[in-house]
Design a protein that fits this description.
Layout: H1 10-33, H2 50-72, H3 76-105, H4 111-117, H5 134-142, H6 161-179, H7 185-199, H8 201-218, H9 220-225, H10 228-245, H11 256-272, H12 274-280, H13 283-316, H14 322-361
Helix pairs in contact: 1-2, 1-12, 1-13, 1-14, 2-3, 2-6, 2-8, 2-11, 3-5, 3-6, 3-13, 3-14, 4-13, 6-8, 7-8, 8-11, 10-11, 11-12, 13-14
Amino acid sequence: MVETIDRRLHEIDGIRGWAALVVLLAHVCFDLFHNIFPYVNFPNFLLFNGRLAVEIFFILSGDALSSAYLRTGSLLCVDKLLVKRYFRLVMPIAFASFSVWAVMVLGWDYHQAAAVIVKRESWLGAVLPFQPDFLQMLYYAFGRVFLDDSVKVAYNPIFWTLAIEFVGSLAVFLYIYMHAALRHPRAILAVIIFFSFLFLPHYANFFIGVLFGMWRQDGLFEWLYRKADWQIALFIAFFIFVYCSLFTPASLWYSPQFNVVQAAFFVFLIYACQYLRRFFSSGLSRILGQLSYALYAIHFAVIVSLSSFLIVVLDKRALLTHSAIAGVIVASIMASFMMAAFLHVLERRYLALLRRLTDVVLGGRQ
């Protein structure tokens, strides 16, 4: 039986979807309101832990980009992914950057005034410190976003992860192309993970993802599924992990190495526990997965426009109560999902065209 190159691992999509939701909640709940709304002032709460979610994104990328090759041994799938990678990433970036530019041009960005009200001048007040310029926006969206993560030039500072994502993807491709020629590919992978963990921790995640893909092909996770005692232990360990994460010392919040370890453990538990895997492969999780990149890309435009506008209007009318803040959060989440759904429709058509063009570039090789 021949494996299909394009077979999807739905748990990866599902985890990615929930991680994107966590990033959204982290920004519209904790980052935006924690100074004036105590009910969201829990940076370690799993649903507000955007730092952990970002590290999980990188692990999933390493796994997803290497899984087809590890399953089939065909470099054609790697060729296709390599040809498409830049174009796959850039379309939502361009749409989201254009949205922010349009918001600024139309005068719909209220983030500076809102930042003072919510006492977040160092975060919300620090973004978009420039006048809108269409050509500069295009330069940012199609190139600079992969080179410069400075907030001083970013039309969407949430895209600081994209430079890491792009370089990490290329590093994974390079390793895969070398894989067959290496005498001890797993030893080399272990060395890469070790040194990148020490010096470039974000990039360690990509290779941890590759390692998880290897374990999947080795049958490790399937073996664990057949062990009832292990399944119960892993399921309990997941909830212990979630509970203990609430008590992470503040000194570790921004430690990249600590977040890498947390992310790797979190993803491993989901892969290894069939109960968790089923949840993250469920219909709801897969829907979130389909919207994940669009949701990640577009919600900043919502924050600097609708969210900030509501904050300014409510404060002006002395109505910015805790209930009103909760309403702003709900409205921001709903608007983000609506915009993400629209972007997803465009993205699907764009990706279908990109797949056809990739086949043309590669000469229709099978």
